[in-house]
């Protein structure tokens, strides 16, 4: 039994629970009697974590791929961040990797003002400071490739 910080409990198969490194370690150390407290995981996030793990665990490869795409497409930004935090805490590596890729895909190509808006970051530069930064680092910063790695020059 997994017990979230908001009191909700989830029954989960051991095979699915073992997809989370933290819980797997607790099982190995015989520390699951009476349930597993998850003080850093909220029930809505845990529900999504379990939906992902259960489906990925039981679906065929093509079905799993289609599920993953739909799973992240329907997710709000806030829910995605909660899932990332939960997957990180639980050491659910496959989910964490997929969620981080989704987050990266969502911000790729955004301008600085768009990123500020997306993440709710206030611009604390004065117009004068912004102009000074633009003079020091023009937008045409070049990337140089060296053996497959990109470097800003």
TrEMBL record:
Record-level GO BP terms: jasmonic acid mediated signaling pathway; protein ubiquitination; ubiquitin-dependent protein catabolic process
One Pfam family, short name: Skp1_POZ
All copies of domain SKP1 component POZ, residue ranges: 2-57
InterPro entries according to UniProt: SKP1, SKP1-like, SKP1-like_dim_sf, SKP1/BTB/POZ_sf, Skp1_comp_dimer, Skp1_comp_POZ
Pathway connected to this protein: Protein modification; protein ubiquitination
Alphabetical keyword list: Ubl conjugation pathway
Residues covered by the SKP1 component dimerisation domain: 94-137
Subunit structure comment from the entry: Part of a SCF (SKP1-cullin-F-box) protein ligase complex.
Function according to Swiss-Prot or TrEMBL: Involved in ubiquitination and subsequent proteasomal degradation of target proteins. Together with CUL1, RBX1 and a F-box protein, it forms a SCF E3 ubiquitin ligase complex. The functional specificity of this complex depends on the type of F-box protein. In the SCF complex, it serves as an adapter that links the F-box protein to CUL1.
Protein family: Belongs to the SKP1 family.
Stated name of the protein: SKP1-like protein
Organism: Panicum miliaceum (Proso millet)
């Amino acid at each position: 039994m997994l017990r979230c910080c908001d009191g909700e409990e989830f029954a989960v198969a051991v095979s699915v629970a073992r997809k989370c490194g933290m819980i797997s370690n607790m099982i190995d150390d015989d520390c699951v009697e009476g349930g597993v407290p998850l003080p850093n995981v909220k029930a809505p996030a845990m529900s999504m974590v379990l939906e992902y793990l259960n489906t990925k665990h039981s679906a065929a490869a093509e079905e799993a791929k289609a599920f993953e795409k739909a799973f992240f497409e329907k997710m709000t930004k806030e829910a995605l961040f909660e899932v990332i935090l939960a997957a990180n805490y639980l050491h659910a590596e496959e989910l964490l990797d997929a969620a981080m890729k989704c987050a990266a895909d969502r911000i790729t190509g955004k301008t600085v003002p768009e990123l500020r808006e997306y993440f709710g970051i206030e611009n604390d530069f004065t117009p004068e400071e912004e102009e000074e930064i633009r003079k020091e680092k023009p937008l045409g910063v070049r990337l140089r490739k060296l053996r497959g790695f990109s470097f800003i020059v």
